[in-house]
Write a structure and sequence with these properties.
This protein is of the alpha/beta class and 417 residues long. 38% of the residues lie in helices and 12% in strands. It contains 16 helices and eleven strands. The strands form two sheets. The protein has an eight-stranded mixed beta sheet with strand order 3-2-1-4-5-7-6-8, sandwiched between helices. β2, α3 (52-61) and β3 form a beta-alpha-beta unit. The radius of gyration is 26 Å and the shape is elongated.
């Protein structure tokens, strides 16, 4: 008996490509996936970055995405060939940051992004929309003016934002500049508006925000912290030398400082550290800081005495005389001084246990930093390719996924599929 053949169901056309430039560990793509309409309008298929550690994390967690390297070599024809419906970009921030000397458009690290700006007018099929992230100060640079003029000339409507992640009731400060642009229709505000008051945006796209931030405890990852415990603990010598520079937070706190790529290397201004002692309070911290400050001169003097004693035995008398006189050294003798100083600070017979040690201060694990940045719980840093220090740097260079999602909701609102 013959059975009627079932008609083949028509296959849905593939979603248009969404391209990440300066993709890092994938925060832009995660923001696209987290947005309300992004997943139905396009798929993040290709990511460009030259950082091998960032690419290792990105490909480990999003293996479906093709990772490509250098952006500087891309021509307008290359960009056309990508056929990206939307571009998501987080270009290098050093040209616009204080630590990078704010050379702006004159900085070699800005050239690849400037090349992309210049490519837009000559592309045959430019993207329908863009989202760009950078540090505060970008909006005051010549690069921003050049970008806005190009967008105007190419028929884009665009809006800029100063957006801190803590506006989303996230217990972490991360103020950043963002720009969104689209060709399809104008925004309610005039093109080129720079928004600093985002109450209207949050009321429309995140009306159910809580009235206060969640505690840091909600973002801690005990398993990751235990695995990395030896790398997260702050060494005794560092507690002595940088005691007053740390921003210390507790699991119950609802704030933390912005993490930077210098986290773990610099105590001041690179991000908060966590108090691991369940018994310690702010008063305990204050007492420990006072005790550390009171004892530090004697400890430093003991370190200096040990260093001089060791150097006197290793250096020729004329060179050692320069050390005693406080004159600078160079080459192998400068390295010898650094070596002996590091050895002295690490010697428990010279340097006692710091009063701050009772607070069990530690750095956040990269996984915990990523959680505060809105990355999913299953984000992994492959241990065979990325160290804890490299993980800190990668997240410190990243962006907040939730902020990207909100801005994409606004960019894509009422967009035709």
């Amino acid at each position: 008996m013959d059975h009627p053949q079932q008609e083949a169901q028509p296959q849905a056309p593939p979603l248009p490509p969404v391209i990440e430039f300066y993709s890092g560990i994938g925060g832009l793509a995660y923001g696209w996936s987290r947005s309300r309409r992004g997943p139905s309008l396009g798929r993040a298929t290709t990511a460009f970055d030259i950082n091998e550690h960032a690419n290792a994390v990105h490909s480990h967690n999003r293996p479906e995405c093709q990772i490509v390297g250098d952006i500087l070599a891309l021509t307008p024809a290359d960009l056309d060939a990508l056929a990206g419906r939307y571009w998501l970009l987080s270009p290098p921030c050093q040209p616009y940051s204080r630590r990078g000397n704010r050379l702006g458009a004159d900085d070699p690290r800005a050239q690849s992004f400037l090349g992309m700006i210049d490519a837009l007018p000559v592309m045959q099929n430019p993207p329908e929309g863009l989202l760009i992230e950078n540090v505060l100060g970008f909006e005051r640079d010549e690069t921003y003016a050049r970008l806005c003029k190009t967008l105007d000339d190419c028929g884009y409507y665009h809006q800029s934002f100063i957006f801190n992640a803590n506006a989303l009731m996230i217990p972490n400060s991360r103020p950043r500049f963002f720009l969104i642009a689209r060709k399809s229709r104008a925004f309610p505000s005039p093109s080129g508006t720079l928004h600093t008051d985002l109450s209207w945006l949050l009321a429309q796209y995140r009306p159910d925000l809580p009235t206060s931030p969640r505690p840091i405890a909600d973002y801690l990852r005990p398993s990751a912290a235990a695995t990395r415990a030896a790398h997260l603990a702050i060494p005794n010598a560092q507690l002595w030398k940088a005691a007053a520079q740390y921003d210390v937070v507790w699991p119950a706190d609802t704030r933390s400082c912005c993490f930077t790529k210098a986290y773990g290397r610099h105590a001041r201004g690179s991000g908060s550290v966590l108090c691991g002692s369940g018994d310690a309070t702010r008063a305990t911290l204050d007492l420990a800081l006072a005790a550390t400050a009171a004892q530090l001169p004697a400890v430093a003097a003991a370190v200096d005495a040990r260093v001089r004693d060791r150097l006197a035995k290793r250096m020729p008398p004329p060179v050692y005389a320069r050390v005693v006189a406080g004159k600078p050294l160079a080459g192998k003798y400068a390295r010898m001084v650094d070596e002996e100083r590091a050895n002295a600070w690490a010697d428990s017979e010279v340097v006692p246990r710091c009063p701050l040690a009772d607070l069990e201060l530690r750095h956040f694990a990269p996984e915990e930093m990523a959680a505060l940045h809105g990355f999913p719980d299953d984000l992994e840093f492959p241990a065979d390719k990325v160290t804890t220090k490299q993980g800190w740097q990668l997240v410190g260079n990243s962006l907040n996924v939730e902020v990207v999602a909100v801005l994409l909701d606004y960019l894509l609102d009422d967009e035709d599929e």
